[in-house]
Structure of Ferredoxin--NADP reductase:
Amino acid sequence: MIKIKALNSQTGEFQEKVLATDDLTTGEWLIGRHPSCDLILNCPYVSRIHGRIILKQRQFYFTDLGSADGSQINDQVVEINQGYILKPCDMIRIGACIVTITPASCNMDETKLQPLDKQVAWVVSNQPKQWIKGKITLRCLRVIAETNDVKTFVFGAEPAVLFNYKPGQFVTLELPINGQTIKRPYSISSTPSRPHTLEITVKRVPTPAEFPDALPGVVSNWLHDNITVGCEIKLSGPMGKFTCMANPSQKLLLISAGVGITPMISMSRWIYDKGADTDVVFFHSARTPGDIIFRCELELMAARKPNFKLAVTTTGAAQASAWLGYRGRFNRSMLQGIAPDFQERTVYVCGPDKFMQEVKSMLEELQFPMENYHQESFGTSKKVKKMPTTAAESVSNGNKLAPTEIFLPRIESNIPRQIAFVGSSVVSHQLGNYTSTLLKEVEQDSTPSSLATSRRQLHSTISAHREITSPAQATSKTIIKDNLTPSVDVVSPPATTSTVISSPPVVVFAKSGKEVAFNDEDSILEVAQQEGIELPCACQMGACGTCKQPLLEGKVTYDGQDPECEPGYVLTCIAKPEGRVVIDA
């Protein structure tokens, strides 16, 4: 048996009740306003079936059964549907009522002499497991339309887990799109202080106006078009160092643009939920007032948290609706207006590459201590390739056109290699005793007439080549596809002069036995994928280390980034070769 005492602090009503059980080791009693409850609490803040007390293996537990106003044990808020161990004289606060329990057979005088431990313990057997890292399959619970082109996808696990991550981190989704598994990183927009669900916020990517035939964002748009409540996805993580937990500071300046707001809202929610005494200035740039993601929530935070300051600027054309915030691109005047003490703050920036570069340059010019500057970016921006507009260019769309084949004579190893100048680059490599000249970096505005001219020039070069080399059988060949530019000046060196050209960037995949000429747009990982070589990858921004491969020969560059990678290895997702590079893959 247990003795329950309940005091209504509003009415002063006091009741004491002994709850009996036939078994000294098990029992269950309901608490609420409903007449069927074992302990009836007449208070408007108490739900009809508010909670329960259970006896299990001689230990008492309290569980909140999803009440409207919640419960507290020793002034600590309890999670719903979670069991909490109860000790003698623990106080359960339910609405305006304070409930205590005491085993009916216990000696109260002895209990009073014992020190009171007000800490709440979780019941391990009832607590969901924590997800800390690794792959997991989740089910979509809700889809929230934040704006016209932005959706938040809310995921949960079955059975339930508690998601444990740092605010601002990201996960990598693995999605089955067009028969392939495509991986893409997305920042987590939810907060670990609400651990039962995990959320990502995704913007639909339109086709660029300057490239109407270009493919839009494949993964983001696929999520918008295909993920509904009940769908399952696979993801891995969490990853990333873009988090306020890694750089504790009493003053923060969060600067975002567009969907770059996602890691910022995660950090803001975490600071708000924890009640941390952190001074936050949140600045966001959106195209129009209707494009401000999480607008209502941010305004609510600013209204309820005195040291949370919100400022927004719109960069689009003036709208019909009134807008009293900033207008135009982020500038020094705005910075001084919203955070005159910005030199004392830790700054986090996330948004399009151009936006982040402008903010970074501005802060550098203002002598900001850049050791307190942090930015998030999913890799460097790349040039958008012009889509084919003619039949000659349609090869890039997968159309099988018959290539023009030109046979070059066999070249002995002691004879200098020939040179083909294409635009501003020279691409030439020798495979054994053969030389294959590849034409690259082509222009896209070729015409059939210029294509014929180019072919005549190339044939002239071959004739000149035959005059300066040994008369051998033509066995090596170069295939010039119809989608390559015809406006190419092909130059053969004089027969009396040996010309030496430095080798262009080449990636050799040792295990796969492939050697691939490299261009300056793709990473080593992307080159491998284009050649059908499977390499492990996840974040594709040099943060997680999944893509790390042994570097057997050569040197790589990371385009100004400074990733953490041990000597002798290379992060293939962001690395580019300098000259000839051999990867153990």
About this structure: Residues 506-583 form a domain with the Ubiquitin-like (UB roll) fold (CATH 3.10.20.30).
